[in-house]
Amino acid sequence: MKRVISVVGARPNFMKVAPIHRAFQKHLEKFDHAIVHTGQHYDVSMSDTFFHDLDMPTPSWFLGVGSGSHASQTSRIMMGFEKVCMEAEPDYVIVVGDVNSTIACALTSVKMGIRTAHVEAGLRSFDRSMPEEINRIATDAIVDDLFVTEPAGVTNLLREGANPSSIHLVGNTMIDSMMYALPKAEASSILIDLGLRTSEYAVVTLHRPSNVDVQERLEMLLNVLAEIGRRIHVVFSVHPRTQKNIKQWNITTPENVRLISPVGYVDFLALLKNARFALTDSGGIQEETTVLNVPCITARTSTERPITVEIGTNVLVKPEYEFMLTAANQILDGRSRKGAIPDLWDGQASHRIVQLITSH
Ligand code: UD1
Ligand code: UDP
Predict the structure, then answer these.
(1) Of 21, 41, 168, 207, which residue is the catalytic one?
(2) Is there an atom of ligand 2 within 6 Å of 205 CB?
């Protein structure tokens, strides 16, 4: 029996690990799969709700690290995870995505000689001012197995000198979760609760430091939303980082933009699926909208997920007032792009990953 531990910490990690856990349940004779939660995100709406929505088991370990500077958060996660590895003696560790929990746990397990995999390896925005880009590059440089969501990831890893035999294009576990949860989303009452009708609203999330940690930029983006709100209902799920800044800078938010606390995964999928378009700076939402064929305006100058722009519904728009508004008006005037679904984004990526781990 081999012991495998997967790491979750922040909101986008839960949907990437849930289907991997389910895939391991089909191999109970070979694997004991457990989950460690670092506690990087801890609000009920940023953490607990996903366990219920994704039918995930309670984590076997909870490190409770909470918020902090990059160095303090990363180091607290490392110390906590080292204890877990000493106690549990895993044969294999899986980290996902690009958050501080990802690099912290990879660095810990690799140095303890534990075979370690990165799910969502190889993505690059080529913007090193993003903390996530540093986490991605550093994680991929040290882990043993690289599970990749899209072809650009393979190209990036090869260019950086990764061993070709460690690179596996498997598809997207986030889409596995989406396909699992979409039937539940059909039963969500969120549209009724918010008084919305299909295709008659835009859904918004913004949380990148480059957009929300600079007061003028955040105010400009809220002005864009107010202007969009003159043409269509706007629902803005406000991330705690963004909420904190709105409060500390005493920003008056537009009356015609509906600000809501972060919602659970099933409700958010319902909002996304039925929206006229999404406006976001999230990584995962660029992928989800591509599969749902919902137009997506990404308020960024680069993306680590180029396939969503190349064949999906995503457009990158420089976060400036005129550019953002033009992009929104184009969609509202009926000029949005139709997308295709990337290869292997078929709901089966987690099974491919577990098959590959089995074959090792
Ligand atoms: C983190 C990830 C980012 C990811 C995002 C997903 C890093 C470096 N960043 O950014 O890549 O896209 O999660 O949502 O790992 N806070 C709360 N409650 C919570 C969590 C956070 O109030 O449950 C507040 C705290 O004030 C905290 C701030 O949000 O200081 C930022 O949290 P943090 O985890 O440091 O970064 P995120 O912006 O959430
Ligand atoms: N999400 C959610 N509720 C919300 C906003 C987003 O469940 O109110 C989901 C979304 O569907 C996606 C994930 O959170 O699956 C994306 O996480 P986030 O944008 O926080 O992180 P990123 O992908 O940018 O790292």
Answers:
(1) 207
(2) yes
User: Distance, CA 257 to ligand 2 centroid (Å)?
Assistant: 19
Q: Could you read off the pLDDT of 112-132 as tens digits, one per residue?
A: 999 999 999 999 999 999 999
The answer to whether the CB of 283 is under 6 A from ligand 2 is yes
Asked about 21 being catalytic, the answer comes back as no
Superfamily covering domain 182-332? Glycogen Phosphorylase B; (3.40.50.2000)
Nearest CA to ligand 1 atom 3: 99
Interval between CA 245 and ligand 1 midpoint (Å): 12
- The reply to whether CATH 3.40.50.2000 applies to domain 2-172+345-359 is yes
What average pLDDT does range 145-149 have in this prediction?
98
pLDDT at 360: 83
Question: Ligand 1 test: best mutation among 43, 174, 237, 241, most atoms within 8 Å of CB?
Answer: 241
The pLDDT-based confidence of 338 (bands split at 50, 70, 90) is confident
Per domain, the residue ranges of the chain are 2-172+345-359, 182-332
In Å, how far from its chain's centre is CA 284?
A: 4
49 CA closest ligand 2 atom index: 7
